[in-house]
Design a protein that fits this description.
The chain is of the alpha/beta class and about 325 residues long. It has 2 domains: about 1-80, no CATH class; about 100-285 and about 305-315, 2-enoyl-CoA Hydratase, Chain A, domain 1, CATH 3.90.226.10. The chain is built from 12 helices and 13 strands. It has helices at about 40-45, 65-80, 80-95, 100-115, 115-125, 165-180, 210-220, 225-230, 245, 280, 285-295, 305-310; strands at about 15-20, 30-35, 50, 60-65, 140-145, 150-155, 185-190, 235, 240, 255, 260-265, 300, 315. It has a 6-stranded mixed β-sheet, with helices on one face. It has a 4-stranded parallel β-sheet with strand order 1-2-3-4. A 3-stranded mixed β-sheet has the order 9-11-12. α6 links the parallel β6 and β7. α2 packs across α3 (about 80-95) and α3 packs antiparallel against α11 (about 285-295). It starts with 15 loop residues before the first strand and ends with a strand. Belongs to the enoyl-CoA hydratase/isomerase family. This is Enoyl-CoA hydratase/isomerase family protein. It holds the Pfam family ECH_1. InterPro entries: ClpP/crotonase-like_dom_sf, Enoyl-CoA_hydra/iso.
């Protein structure tokens, strides 16, 4: 595809190029979706390759019942929020080796999209909402037994949404573990029906300005701390793990999921990209190609597939 990406008004036209088996990409300005079968080196050069079930393994490939039909569904999702889809692709392709640099890149991109029309449209559709009420209890519970620090997200009435109170209390607990060398193991779990249902939607769009939003995400967020604690951290997941509910756990060296747990990245449909570290943590487990598929499709991933892909380490 050689048509310009942007029209004269700067609007994105066609954000996706679908490549038939064996075809090489022509324009890397677009989301590149390959149709299998495809050689691994060709699959690695595009953003995701869709193949029939049972025909290819490896992080570059996603097995689906109907590769062409699925490609059109991904195209439709990208056309609904093309700025978010293309920004996500650019961030995933860049993939700095350094985690801190990756978190900064993700946050710069996220802040850009916070000022975009796609997120503004999502906010308008959602309508005005009051800020969430203060937590009626400690938003995060911390319990020490010998060398194990157990940290429990404790806002079950909001499905442990990763809002300001939960974030700040979680960060405080993780900093405690980093400062105390006698903490040999950190176990993170969640109270109630789900480990974490992602960012608290009632707080979206309430940051004073985009620069402040960037520094809060990167300097006051939990992702970098979990990365530094990774060798000592185990996360136990259950229920619906959305957005931050899998982005943060993916930094840990050990993730356990209960049967029936599901995982979802819905941010692109909101005009955003994963913003709790997911463009850094999740590709390190499942590759940038499957990460793109999860985020662009927005569909839930079941625990069995998550185990097969390496997003979790055990289902028990």
């Amino acid at each position: 595809m050689t048509d310009p990406l942007l029209d004269e008004a700067g609007r994105i036209g066609e954000p996706v190029e679908i490549l038939e088996p064996g075809a090489e990409p022509v324009n890397r300005d677009r989301v590149l979706i390959g149709i299998g079968p495809r050689e691994p080196e060709l699959a690695a050069a595009v953003d995701v390759t869709l193949v029939a079930e049972g025909t290819a393994k490896g992080p570059e490939f996603v097995e689906v019942a109907d590769p062409h039909g699925e490609a059109e569904l991904l195209r439709a999702a990208a056309k609904e929020c093309p700025q978010a889809a293309l920004t996500l692709v650019e961030v995933l392709r860049a993939a700095p080796a350094d985690v801190t640099a990756g978190l900064d890149l993700e946050s710069f991109a996220y802040s850009t999209l916070l000022g975009g029309r796609e997120f503004a449209r999502w906010l308008a559709r959602r309508g005005e909402r009051p800020l969430p009420p203060p937590s009626p209890r400690e938003p995060v519970l911390v319990d020490r037994e010998d060398g194990t620090l157990r940290v429990t997200l404790n806002r079950p009435e909001r499905r442990n949404a990763y809002g300001r109170e939960v974030r700040d209390a979680l960060v405080e607990a993780l900093r405690l573990a980093l400062l105390d060398d006698s903490v040999r193991r950190v176990v993170l779990d969640g109270a109630g029906p789900s480990f974490c249902a992602g960012g608290d939607l009632d707080e979206f769009g309430t940051t004073p300005d985009l620069a402040t939003a960037h520094f809060v995400r990167t300097r006051a967020g939990a992702g970098g701390l979990l990365h530094r604690l990774a060798d000592r951290a185990e996360v136990r997941l259950h229920g619906s793990c959305v957005g931050a509910g899998i982005e943060l756990p993916a930094f840990a060296s050990r993730i356990l999921a209960r049967p029936g747990t599901t995982f979802r990245l819905p941010e692109v449909s909101m005009g955003l990209i994963p913003g709790a570290g997911g463009t850094v943590s999740i590709p390190r487990r499942i590759g940038r190609w499957r990460t793109l598929y999860l985020a662009l499709s927005g569909r839930p991933l079941d625990a069995g597939t998550a185990l097969d892909w390496g997003l979790v380490d055990a289902v028990e």
